[in-house]
Design brief:
This protein is α/β, with parallel strands linked by helices and 295 residues long. It contains 7 helices and 14 strands. The protein starts with 10 loop residues before the first helix and ends with a strand.
């Protein structure tokens, strides 16, 4: 999160904040369900949290602009092609694609961001249609030339949900349509490394988590042998009230994800490092993969 004051808290400060939580979560299975981020409830507050031209907690507009330019280059779709933006949020990617002449359909579970994205598109005359829904229940058949899923959302899914997502996307794409995924992968040697925990502390008058002053502890836990990463948020208000939320991600070996895509009717065409820089064998955890539907 750019331009938001952040400190690395002392272990004593971390312990004090965790002491306010009824149960201190330290193992992957402690973070169940896998995704405990209240996105539908949080979305309205997020839209009120601006840092310059950006939304607090989301990636910067400058970064999104660079990534959209790169994905347009790599997808090489003609003007007017149809793209579905899965988990579209407030239209950061979808509206930039609409501004470039593509026909965009955005899907998100939160009404607030869907309405925001649609209002922005309508104000500029972009060919974008945003609708509330889940990317696990896509109602489309052979409608889109490409599908986009960012922010490693695929890593939050269990095996059954991942199969549901990929099957729905394959049905929604035209033959030889393409899927561009941002995904977190297991970096080389991950399973031989000890577990780690890194913390950041934000002291804020407001944030996407609360409209009132609060401390926001962000724990980043990596369980190397389990190939899992958890981002754990602990929010302590001025009144002493405590809330906690988390997302738990599976870190897929690239070969495993490639095989999974193939089982669901896709073939991997290209891997990319962050920023959509082509790479035969990316070494970072956050990467992109471009796959083509075979059905």
């Amino acid at each position: 999160m750019s331009r938001i004051p952040v400190v690395v808290p002392s272990s004593a400060r971390v312990d004090a904040m965790l002491a306010a939580v009824p149960f201190v979560r330290r193992q992957p299975e402690d973070f169940t369900p896998r995704d405990a981020i209240p996105w539908e409830a949080q979305a309205s507050q997020l839209l009120k949290c601006r840092v310059g031209d950006d939304f607090m907690g989301l990636r910067s507009g400058a970064r999104v602009e660079r990534e959209v330019a790169a994905l347009v280059e790599h997808l090489a779709l003609p003007a007017g092609a149809a793209i579905v933006d899965l988990g579209c949020g407030p239209g950061l990617y979808g509206n930039r694609l609409g501004a470039r002449g593509y026909r965009v359909t955005g899907i998100d579970i939160a009404d607030a961001v869907v309405s925001h994205a649609q209002a922005e598109a309508d104000a500029h005359g972009w060919s974008c249609c945003y609708q509330r829904g889940s990317f696990l229940a896509l109602p489309f058949c052979r409608r889109f030339d490409a599908a986009l899923l960012t922010s490693s959302m695929v890593n939050h899914l269990d095996r059954a949900e991942l199969a549901c997502l990929l099957g729905g996307v394959r049905r929604a794409l035209v033959p030889a349509g393409r899927l561009l995924l941002e995904v977190s992968v297991a970096s080389p040697g991950l399973t031989r490394r000890p577990d780690t925990e890194d913390c950041k502390l934000f002291t804020l008058p407001y944030s996407p988590w609360s409209a009132h002053p609060h401390d926001w502890l962000e724990r980043n836990l990596c369980f190397g042998r389990r190939r899992e990463r958890v981002i754990h948020h602990v929010i302590v208000g001025e009144d002493g009230g405590v809330a906690e939320h988390w997302s738990r991600r599976s870190l897929y070996p690239r070969q495993q994800l490639t095989a999974r895509l193939e089982r669901e009717g896709f073939v991997v065409q290209q891997w990319f490092e962050q920023g959509l820089v082509p790479a035969t064998a990316p070494t970072s955890e956050a990467v992109w993969v471009l796959a083509q539907s075979l059905r």
